[in-house]
């Protein structure tokens, strides 16, 4: 006889078994979803931290590289120049203002005091740093931009005739021009006859003003390290603002002053213009002219807030003009922050002061 299959074996899962299996599956799915969300958030925080560190280090590196070249004017030694009667304007665009600044490789404003008209959207309580120098490459040589890209331009004379290095007027030792006009200094092969011989190398003259802006783009609320760059085509100089690093919230600068005139910093000041009770304009110029080192402090923050996080820390960025620690209290927001700092020697002005 043929046996019929058992009905018990063919009936499948009961409703209770299906509900238990579904519940277990949902619990496993919920656990996996929670783990995925946490891992995603952790990855996002890691990426934010990486961007913060990258922006902070980049800001420090850009400032340090520019500072190391501060006061570089090729073969020209600016120590022969007389000090101006007063501090030159940070945002000078005329030739007289640019020439007056040659003796001050670095200059700045402490906590953004008396901001010039060329600066806008500057974050309150942050320092402004100015670096003056020439390009380390000759215009049009190698990867250096050609003269046609615009100036200002600088020429250091190497000619020992009576109209240049042997002239009683030190202004003849170099040429500084907004265009190619009057770039008539010569190299060593010049003859005793004026204006003859091979023209000296032409370098672009840089005036860089670093500051912290409240926004990268208008209204985005992202504090950003920016740099004003002076450029000219013909006789019409203009300032251009270039964003460098997002998330840079504060910039504080201290200057090492060589009052002993031996090329070594023996005094630190956040504001050389008022250091050691200095009140006269000549004293302020003298102090700034003695700067041979710079200590830079940068406070970087994430560009995006972290959900559930509150920054209640207090950060120290060097010293104030009165010698007290410069502290900044976080505004209890959701942005993570980190302090970066470096000390940069200024080899060009320091080397010229060594006995």
Note poorly predicted spans. none
Number of helical stretches of at least 4 residues = 5
Return the structural class: alpha+beta
Question: What is the N-to-C succession of helices and strands?
Answer: HHHEEEEEEEEEHEEEEH
Distance N to C terminus: 122 Å
- Count of beta strands: 13
Largest sheet geometry? 7 strands, antiparallel
Tertiary shape: elongated
Rounded to the nearest angstrom, the radius of gyration is 31 Å
Mean pLDDT: 90
Residue share in β-strands: 25-35%
- Share in helix: 10-25%
Number of domains: 1
Protein architecture, described:
- It is built from 5 helices and 13 strands.
- The termini are far apart.
- The protein is an alpha+beta fold.
- The protein has helices at 7-10, 15-68, 95-100, 281-289, 347-353; strands spanning 106-109, 128-134, 153-156, 174-177, 202-213, 224-233, 236-246, 248-257, 267-269, 291-301, 314-319, 325-329, 337-345.
Which helices and strands, and how do they pair?
Elements: H1 7-10, H2 15-68, H3 95-100, E1 106-109, E2 128-134, E3 153-156, E4 174-177, E5 202-213, E6 224-233, E7 236-246, E8 248-257, E9 267-269, H4 281-289, E10 291-301, E11 314-319, E12 325-329, E13 337-345, H5 347-353
Antiparallel strand pairs: 1-2, 2-5, 3-4, 3-5, 5-6, 6-7, 8-9, 8-10, 10-13, 11-12
């Amino acid at each position: 006889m043929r046996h019929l299959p058992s009905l018990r074996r063919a009936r499948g899962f009961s409703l209770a078994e299906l509900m238990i299996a579904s519940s277990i599956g949902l619990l496993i799915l919920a656990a996996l979803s929670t783990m995925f969300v946490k891992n995603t958030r952790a990855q996002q925080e890691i990426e934010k931290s990486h961007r913060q560190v990258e922006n902070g280090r980049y800001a420090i590196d850009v400032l340090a590289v520019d500072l190391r070249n501060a006061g570089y004017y090729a073969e020209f030694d600016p120590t022969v120049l007389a000090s101006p009667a007063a501090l030159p304007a940070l945002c000078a665009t005329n030739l007289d203002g640019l020439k007056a600044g040659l003796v001050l490789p670095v200059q700045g404003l402490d906590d953004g005091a008396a901001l010039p008209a060329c600066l806008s959207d500057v974050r309150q309580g942050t320092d402004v740093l100015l670096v003056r120098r020439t390009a380390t490459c000759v215009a049009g040589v190698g990867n250096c931009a050609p003269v046609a890209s615009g100036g200002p331009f600088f020429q250091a004379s190497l000619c020992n005739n009576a109209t240049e290095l042997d002239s009683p007027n030190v202004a003849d030792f170099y040429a500084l021009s907004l265009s190619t006009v009057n770039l008539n200094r010569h190299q060593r092969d010049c003859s005793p006859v004026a204006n003859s011989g091979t023209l000296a190398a032409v370098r672009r003259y840089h005036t860089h003003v670093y500051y912290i802006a409240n926004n990268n783009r208008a209204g985005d609320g992202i504090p950003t390290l920016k740099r004003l760059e002076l450029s000219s085509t013909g006789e019409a100089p203009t300032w251009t603002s270039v964003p460098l690093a997002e998330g840079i919230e504060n910039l504080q600068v201290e200057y090492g002053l060589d009052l002993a005139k031996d090329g070594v910093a023996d005094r630190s000041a956040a504001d050389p213009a008022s250091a050691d009770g200095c009140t006269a304009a000549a004293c302020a110029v003298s102090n700034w002219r003695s700067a041979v080192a710079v200590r830079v402090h940068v406070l970087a923050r994430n560009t995006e807030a972290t959900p559930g996080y509150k920054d209640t820390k207090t950060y120290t960025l060097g010293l104030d003009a009165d010698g007290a620690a410069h502290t900044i209290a976080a505004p209890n927001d959701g942005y993570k922050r980190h302090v970066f700092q470096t000390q940069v020697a200024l080899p060009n002005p320091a080397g010229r002061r060594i006995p």
